[in-house]
Write a structure and sequence with these properties.
Protein name: TIGR04219 family outer membrane beta-barrel protein
Organism: Thalassotalea euphylliae
Keywords: Signal
Low-confidence stretches: 4-21
Signal peptide: 1-20
Distance between the termini: 28 Å
CATH topology: Lipocalin
Shape: elongated
InterPro entries: OMP_w_GlyGly
Amino acid sequence: MRKTLIAAGLASLMSTAAHADVVGLYIGAQIWDNEAEGIFGESGQQRDFNLGDEQQGSYFIAVEHPIPLIPNVRIASTTLDTKGSTQITEPLEFDDQNFAAGAQVAASFDVSYIDYTLYYELFDNGLFSFDFGLTARDFDGDVTLSSQVTSNDSSGNPVSNTVEGKINTSEIVPMLYASTEVGLMFTGLSLFANGNFLSIDDHTLYDYQLGVSYAVVDNIAIDVNLQAGYRSVKLELDDLDDLYSDLEFDGVFAGVTVHF
């Protein structure tokens, strides 16, 4: 809720500012069909839970202006929500809950993040542009493991109980941001790439996308671009609120961007 209110407030301010002729407002949304693979868990106990393929949604809003030294602003939201399960062959501990060897353990990975990016447009000649900046990636979500355990009550009757452990993630991680676009003259098409990157001792993260954009509307009042491409997210986390992971989400996406 805290992050939603912040994002909404900033978006409102940016929308107001965009009425000035010298300010450009960009709003975009995507549907991302991704595959998830990798391991996660607590330190030294990461497992592959056969996470399922999902369709994820994302959106962004950005404001660009010509004022020197003051950075442009971009806010983007992404959700990574998937489930899986596996039969563990060794005992597993997660959030102080113990899962016995041989248990079928269900996993729910529900982590979202909002990127708050300040960036500069270093070059733009109408056909080629390049932006560079810094991002504060605000993680929020939870990862849950659960298993059904059968035991006998005092009368010897079987009773089923659920063992569940949950880790909540909430942390801000700094990342580098870069974006480029190359227009193809007289076609309405352009090629683009953008992403955030970080590699330090305790985390290795990247989130990039490559694609093609087509201008279906291009006039003084509004531009509308349809986009398609490939996106990949790497989450190699070392103690993000006790969560350790080496996960990758990748696949194709389709989206639309509107420029006022």
